[in-house]
Amino acid sequence: MTRLMTPDDYAMLPAHAADHRLAYGDHPDQFGDLYLPRSRPDPPSPTAVLILLHGGCWRSRFGLAPLGQLARRITERGAAVWNLEYRRLGGGGGWPATFLDVAAGADFLRSLARPHDLDLSRVVAAGHSAGGHLACWLASRHVLPPGAELHRRQPLGVTAVVSLAGIPDLALAAHEGICAGAPVELMGGTAAEVPQRYAQGSPLAAAPVTVPQWHVVGEADALVPAAYVRRCVGAARAREERAELVALAGAGHFEIVVTGSRVWSDVEAVIVNALG
Fold first, then answer.
1. Nearest-angstrom CA–CA distance, 250 and 254
2. What is the pLDDT of residues 14-49, one digit of tens each?
């Protein structure tokens, strides 16, 4: 039986430096790493952008560094990657800080578009695990009413979502023990205790997502089980969302975000397709 990657294996992936590290706020965790393609098309044209959100159960143990290898690989396919850091549980995150950071980081792309020739009409949100939840949330936040705590004026839109072992239903995740209590800690209570927060921050409790979404999961994932992701995709389709499931045999939680894994080509094809 093939050995699956562990969290420690993932944390030890070699770093891949970004072209630019840029702050979108004053907190030490309010920054992003911008990766740019090494070559440009002839004639030059604006570059599509992948907003990349790391996982780690919304906790401060994991940061964005291990996804640098994925970011650099996507630039080889001609897109820019904005790999976002954000405040997490144990480091000032939780409700509403984690959400507001991701929103501010995504909207910060507007200030990067002109100097780096980015095409803001082609922005895809992608995330791994807890980052998959946040990527789905970015696609649904534009319908939040002005009085909502997570509302921001004129949020940057995304054209598609790629959720990699993502967690789009926080109440179901809490019920099934995914991330060992972190969904409730993130929201500051259960869905019964703070339903208005879940209606704003849990994508499958909010308004339907109107852009295409791909949900990729390893069939051998023990941290975010494929059965959970299937239920989420089914719920999204029941709301008439354009949700596609990509289940990869023999893959665990981390293989789907590691460019050297045997399933990476399948994952890369999904991301490239989403970028158009």
1. 11
2. 999 999 999 999 999 999 999 999 887 766 789 999
Domain count, the chain: 1
- The pLDDT tens digits for 177-198 are 999 999 999 999 999 999 999 9
- Secondary-structure breakdown of the chain: helix, strand, coil percentages, each rounded to the nearest 5: 35, 20, 45
- Vertex 80: Cα angle to 261 and 257 (nearest 5): 20
Does 1 reside within a domain? no
Comparing 2-16, 121-135, 158-172, the range with the smallest average pLDDT is 2-16
Rounded Cα distance between 56 and 63, Å, is 8
Indicate whether 2 belongs to any domain. no
Residue 118 phi/psi, 5-degree rounding, is: -95, 145
243 assigned to some structural domain: yes
149: how many CB neighbours lie within 10 A of its CB?
Answer: 13
Which helix H or strand E contains 98, and what residues bound it? helix 97-107
Domain containing 69: what range? 7-275
Alpha helices in 108-202 (DSSP H): 109-116, 130-140, 170-175, 182-187, 195-201
Listed residue (187, 217, 200) closest to 152, CA to CA: 200
pTM score, whole prediction: 0.97
Query: Which helix (DSSP H) or strand (DSSP E) does residue 122 occupy?
Result: strand 118-128
Three-state SS letters, 225-261: CHHHHHHHHHHHHHCCCCEEEEEECCCCCCHHHCCCC
Q: What is the CATH number of the domain that holds 201?
A: 3.40.50.1820
Question: Is the bond preceding residue 46 a cis peptide, omega within 30 degrees?
Answer: no
Does some domain include residue 215?
yes
Dmax (CA) of the chain = 56
